[in-house]
Amino acid sequence: MVGEVADVPQEWPVESSEDLYRSSLPFALRADVVRRPGAGDEEPFTRVVLEHPGAVVILAVDEEEQVLCLRQYRHPARMRMLELPAGLLDVAGEEPQAAAERELLEEAGLRAGSWVPLTSVYSSPGISSELIHYFVARDLSESDRGDFVAAHEEADMETLWVPFEDLVAAVLDGRVQDAPVLIAVLTAHHRGLLGTGGR
Q: Which end of the chain is more exposed for a tag (fewer CB within 10 A), N or C?
């Protein structure tokens, strides 16, 4: 019998946990020794967990249905990726939409008059606790970034405006490989929020 098509909250017993890496960064790596419930004498097993504070991704769209994109170097992939404005939930107590507003301002110098939650997705739940919250931002206006100063990869970041339908095509034919871009673009397209003149 097939149950409801949905994820189900559940926690298996953790017999012990060991920090493999922990610092002032908002990430940590630990090894948990886990026991499967109801497994009798079955040996517990180790699972490595990347602790992550979560993140936000913004699909910022102008009145002509052009999407604000960024081109940024990503060292692990050894690629300059086409991405959307995004950032970590690394401010204590900050709600996802507030973080999205902050990141759009910092990365693009923009504010949005309209915010629509799109979806929330675990990026790689087999190893990471990262939960990414996606938003569509409209009614954009330029604004002062305040005291934000770009550094490292962000100091080398390019911005460009891409017609939404061109972005859909680039996602579908594999020219764009950043997973958050695919999730945001295809979800917004499927829900009729963008493309075919949808609002």
A: N
